[in-house]
Specification:
Largest sheet: 6 strands, mixed
Distance between the termini: 22 Å
Strand content: 15-25%
Number of strands: 6
Helix content: 25-40%
Structural class: alpha/beta
Radius of gyration: 19 Å
Order of helices and strands: HEEEHEEEHHHHHH
Mean pLDDT: 90
Shape: globular
Low-confidence stretches: 1-16
Length: about 260
């Protein structure tokens, strides 16, 4: 009972767990970089080179548009869940060996994600150089290797969660979440996890929220008590909806 009262009091002090602008965190993705870390287990198993070929795909260095480029093509396999993903590494990395290093690096990160974010919807990774943000959707995760470096490096796994959520969960990309039910949860919560989610609720709310469901259900020991209670109080209806999906969270242990 004392614990319940403390949570209620905290909720009153936090104004319902959100600031006056109606969101929980000013930077949802960059609030905590330890939800998944490089030391966590990965389901990545093996990588095989297939061929080098010219493809056409998105590259944010040229604006958000497609371009034609040569790529080293690999197939990555994973334990349990969906078994393989095609990884296309821009030939600007020069050699097959250097391209394979990039493919393995990001395949390991994708293998750290729970299986419900590595579904049949996620068919490819596309890897370029460049200091541009990543992208999700189109059955792909688009990676620019020079953006999440330095102080941002610790958040790279959280960014991967975000982009995989676009690809595997977002209704606009034929993901598993039902838009009407999610919208009801948004309305009932009456707040967002971040300004970005609030500004683009149809496009970004799911991807911004899923990190925090994983945080409180799978990695609660890695976030502060204040952060934990802020999430529990702030978005209970979204959490409930996600709980009810009975997701396959392997290799994460969740409750």
């Amino acid at each position: 009972m004392k614990k319940l009262l403390s949570i209620v009091v905290l909720g009153l002090l936090l104004g319902g767990s959100a600031n006056a602008d109606g969101y929980l965190f000013s930077e949802a993705l960059f609030t905590d970089g330890d939800i998944i870390t490089e030391k966590d287990p990965t389901t990545f198993e093996n990588i095989v080179f297939i061929k080098k070929k010219r493809i056409k795909w998105w590259d944010r260095r040229n604006g958000i548009k497609q371009k034609s480029f040569k790529a080293f093509i690999f197939k990555a396999t994973f334990l349990k869940g969906k078994r393989d993903i095609i990884i296309r590494v821009n030939a600007e990395f020069e050699t097959k060996s250097k391209a394979e290093e990039q493919a393995v690096k990001y395949a390991k990160i994708i293998g750290q994600l729970p299986n419900f974010l590595r579904t049949k919807n996620l068919k490819t990774l596309t890897i370029h150089k460049g200091n541009k943000e990543w992208g999700g959707g189109n059955n792909d995760i688009l990676i620019h290797t020079d953006h999440y470096v330095g102080r941002l490096k610790k958040y790279i796994e959280e960014v991967a969660i975000h982009e995989a959520a676009h690809t595997s969960l977002d209704p606009q990309w034929h993901g598993s979440i039902k838009r009407s039910k999610w919208n009801k949860a948004i309305k009932a919560d009456n707040k967002f996890v971040s300004p970005y989610a609030k500004r683009f609720p149809k496009r970004e709310d799911i991807a911004e929220t899923i990190n925090w469901w994983i945080a409180v259900r799978c990695k609660s020991d890695r976030i502060s008590k204040l952060t934990y209670e802020k999430i529990i109080l702030g978005i209970p209806n979204r959490l409930k909806y996600l709980d009810e999906q009975n997701y396959d969270t392997y290799p994460l242990v969740c409750k």
